[in-house]
Amino acid sequence: MKRETGQRTAAERNDSHEPVYQALLTAIVEQQLPPGSRLPEEALSAAFGVSRTGIRKVLQRLAAVQMIVLLPGRGAKVASPDVQEARDIFRTRALIECANLPNVLAHCQPPHLAGLAGLLEQERQAHQQQEGAAAIRLSAAFHIQLQAISGNRVLTELVTRLTQRSSLVIAAWGAPWRHGCRCDDHDRLVDLLREGALTPLSDALQRHFDQILASLRFERDAAAAPDFIQLFADKGVHR
């Protein structure tokens, strides 16, 4: 039976909110919306040109992946990992990513190495130019692409989610201009991957995570409320 004009499936309705979801997720991951930032439905609705009902659905999706917190009767805010959660996120990443390295080495081919080298060059440039959002994005992309070499899609999806939550930790507890990871650490990891040296590679990745944890400063100042209209000026979605 042919659907009447104007009728849409649930999937199609969700798709119509996907640009809003991705814009908010990106703003959180790239630390344009710091941990603890309030996310008023009315302000977001005006910024995106989407109904408050649509914004509410997007916020529910973000809460489901632990990027925001929904407060009964008080709206939503960007998640702000406490000290224990911050440590647990990076320790979990270390456990998973180090354990998967034998599979990464077993599947690694020259095109994989070339792809990682390309990411490293972009990351290096982002740091040199102090482009914080790009540095964060490329640092996460490096870890995701490294693990994706293994061909384990489930693990890669998990690492992707953990890198997103890691960005919240760095935003909340990182020192000024600690965007992403250290480029020289990533360079060393690619060199060891190219050599096929499992034990040194695993040790280097573990040290990498240990150094990130050691760099975190478990104190922070209050952040000013963001201007949603300005932040999402080019992301408007018609109702």
From TrEMBL:
Transmembrane segments: none annotated. CDD domains: WHTH_GntR. Keywords: DNA-binding, Transcription, Transcription regulation. InterPro entries: GntR_C (IPR011711), TF_FadR/GntR_C (IPR008920), Tscrpt_reg_HTH_GntR (IPR000524), WH-like_DNA-bd_sf (IPR036388), WH_DNA-bd_sf (IPR036390). PROSITE patterns: HTH_GNTR (PS50949). One of its GO terms (molecular function) is DNA-binding transcription factor activity. Residues 14-81 form the HTH gntR-type domain. It comes from the Bacteria. Gene3D superfamilies: GntR ligand-binding domain-like, Winged helix-like DNA-binding domain superfamily/Winged helix DNA-binding domain. This is GntR family transcriptional regulator. It comes from Mixta gaviniae.
